[in-house]
Prior knowledge:
Blueprint (H helix, E strand, L loop, with lengths): L8 H13 L1 E13 L13 E12 L28 H12 L6 E2 L1
Parallel strand pairs: 1-3
Antiparallel strand pairs: 1-2
Amino acid sequence: GWSDVNEPPSQAIEREIFEESGYRTKAVKIVALYDKFQHDHPPQLPHTYKIFFRCELIGGESTPSIETSEIAFFDKENIPPLSLHRVIPSQIFRLFEHFENPDSPTDFD
């Protein structure tokens, strides 16, 4: 999702997760900060940085929204087709590595 003006990144991700899934989370670490132009995303404007957070699930329930038709969790062997403008497979697999090794340093370009 996108941050609102003057919204801290941690609040933006917590809000976006709730709005799009119904789950309440707590952002606990930035695991990656990527420049989209440095990765294999299809060309798209505007130029953006991608911030990936590790969040803890603290409540809520699966609730589809106007932006999501269904909500599910996937293991790395069963990732569904991705919106490549948003995230690419190599980034997803790197995030699983962070999940398995939570003390890994933050990735950045």
